[in-house]
Amino acid sequence: MVGGQADVKLVSNAMANATRRKIMAMLVEKERTRADVEQAAGASMLDYHLQMLQQAGLADIKDEVITLTDFGKNFMETKAEKPAQAKKDLSGTAPLQITEVRQLLPCIADVSKFRIIARIEPQLRGALKLLEPLFPRARYSERIGALIIQKGNVLITLYSNGNVTMTMISSEAEARTVLEGLKETINKAIISGITPAPREKVKVDHAEVYKYLPKTDCKICGEQSCYAFAIRMVGGETTLEKCTPLLETKFATSLETLRALREYL
Ligand code: SF4
Question: Of 78, 149, 218, 244, which has the maximum CB count within 10 A?
C-alpha cells in the first residue's frame, strides 16, 4: 500500500516523466506485453522506466506482461478527467480575442530575451486540451492544466483561465505576431474543426535544462552541482521542486520555462 511521505515521492518521481505517463495511460486500457510497451514508448531506458513504476507500486511485471496494480488503477482513476468536465469538440466556443500583452522580466538564460504575459478571451477551460493536435510541438499538461506550445526557442503556455505566458521573446511586437498566429489557428479550428498537424518530437537534454537553473551550485537540492541536478532531472531521478532557489522572484521566468520543458521529458 502506498501512502507514506517517501512513497508519495516515489509516485511523484515516477509520474514526472512523459514516457512513464504514456506507459501508465496504455496500461489503463489493458495489460500489455513488454514488446507492446517498447513499440509504443520506445526502447530507450525502458527497463529503468518500468523499474520506477514498479518501485512506486503503480505497475507489476510478470512473465514479460505488465499490468497496473490496484494502487495504480486507483491512482489513474483520480487523475482521469471527469466526463462532465470533458469537452469533445470546439462547438460553442466563441472566437478568441487577444485582450492584453505586457512585457515582463528578461530571461536569465539570455538577457536579450523577455517574458511576456498576455490574456485571451474567452477562457478556453475544457477546450484547451483539444487544441494539442493543432500544433506540431504542443503538449497538454495535466499537472498545470495548461497547453504548452514550442515554436523555435519560444515557449508559450496557455492556461485555462485565459492567461498566456511566453518566454525567450525578443520584443512585445514579436509576441503580438506569435499570438496573432495562434489566434488564427485556433479560430480556424473553432469554425472548421481540428485538423491534426504532423507531430514533431521535442528533445530536451540536460544542457537545455541547465541553461535555466540558478547555477550557484548551492546543493540545496541534494546534488553536488546544478549541472548534476540537470542530468538527474532529465533522467527522471529528481524533481524540479527540489531546486527551491527557483522560487525566488528573480528566477520566475526560469522556473516557468523549466516547468514547461519538463513536460517534454
Ligand atoms: S538547488 Fe538549484 S541552484 Fe542549488 S545546486 Fe541544486 S539545482 Fe543548483
Answer: 149
- Which atom belonging to ligand 1 lies closest to the Cα atom of 242? 1
- Of the chain, the end-to-end C-alpha distance in Å amounts to 28
Cβ–ligand 1 distance for 226 under 6 Å, the answer: yes
Atom of ligand 1 nearest to the CA of 222: 6
Range of the domain at 66: 5-79
The 10s digit of each residue's pLDDT in 3-57 is 455 577 788 888 888 788 888 888 887 888 888 888 877 777 888 889 999 998 9
Q: What CA–CA distance (Å, rounded) separates 113 from 166?
A: 10
Cα–Cα distance, 156 to 24 (Å, whole number): 27
Global confidence as pTM: 0.64
At 157-184, the pLDDT tens digits run 998 888 898 888 888 888 899 999 999 9
What is the pLDDT confidence band of residue 2, given thresholds at 50, 70 and 90? very low
User: CATH no. for residue 259?
Assistant: 1.10.15.40
211-147-161-257 Cα dihedral, nearest 10 degrees: 0
**Boundary (domain end) residue, out of 49, 79, 109:** 79
